[in-house]
Structure formats: C-alpha cells, structure tokens
Amino acid sequence: MIDRTDSRLLDLLRQNARMPVSAIAKHLGIGRATVKQRMDRLETEGVVKKYTVDVDEGKVGTGYSAVVLISFIQGVASQREVARRIASIKGISELHLISGTWDMVARVHAPSTEEIGRLVIDQLRSIEGVGRTETCSIFATIKG
Question: Alpha carbon of 7 to those of 32, 34, 42, 69: distances in Å?
C-alpha cells in the first residue's frame, strides 16, 4: 500500500529519477536506509517500473514531434500484436491503446516533418491491421 511518504518519494523521483538517496531523505525528513528500503519495495511491488531520461529531442536531431491517432482493422491480427509492431518502429517514443473514436495514439519524433511523413506513410500505414491515421504536429510541450 502506498502511504503519504511513498507518494512524496514518487513525486521527487518523477521530478528527477537520478536524485541521490541522501537528497531524497533530506527532502522527506527520514533516514537514507529508510528511503532505500522504500525504493526497493516500490520496485519489487512494480510501482516503480523503470527509471528513465527526458531527452531534449531538438539537441539530438529529432526535434520535430507529432501525435498520430490510429484506427485498428480487425481480422488480420490482434490489436495488441498490431500495437507491438507499431511500437517497434524507430521514432515512435510512446504508444497507447485508447478508447473513443481512435484505437491507439503514438508520439513520434524525427529530424523533420518530412521524416514524420515517411514514417507514417511508409512504415506505420504498411502494417496490416492499421486503418486510418491522423497526424497532429506538436508545436510546443508545456508539460511532458
């Protein structure tokens, strides 16, 4: 069960997953050993699935981003299998199964809008089970 201290610990890790245990302990007002035990428990219980990095895509040459809405066509493969194929495309950083008019939404990063177009037209739409797509360019990310 997650208590208030765990919740505060998770908030700190969301802000900076590389924050030293000693700094977390100081913020929370508890001992380092206690913080480490809590972090280990949260990992073991699957609450913390991974530690990650927030990359400035523009600085690594993939500064153009888009969200692609995807519809699924039944019959060829399961939606989860189609999603796994989509997720394996280089440049797709996120893929979510969603409810509503669309079945999936992907976040795409590429060096140019032309490359995003190639990814969508040549790779994404060529996957059996992918129906319609709608691509929305991302102008700015306020909170990522």
Answer: 17, 14, 11, 32
**pLDDT tens per residue, range 63-103:** 899 999 999 999 889 999 999 999 999 999 999 999 999 99
> Which residue type, as a one-letter code, is found at position 144?
G
Range of the domain at 12: 4-44
The radius of gyration of the chain's CA atoms, rounded to the nearest angstrom, is 19
Do 24 and 77 share a structural domain?
Answer: no
The answer for 46, left when phi > 0, alpha when psi is -120 to 50, beta otherwise, is left
* 52 part of a folded domain: no
pTM of the model: 0.75
143 contacts: CB under 8 Å, gap ≥ 6: none
Asked if 27 and 64 sit in the same domain, the reply is no
Q: Are residues 84 and 121 in the same domain?
A: yes
Query: What are the distances in angstroms from CA 98 to CA 44, 52, 75, 113, 120?
Result: 28, 23, 19, 25, 19
* Counted domains in the chain: 2
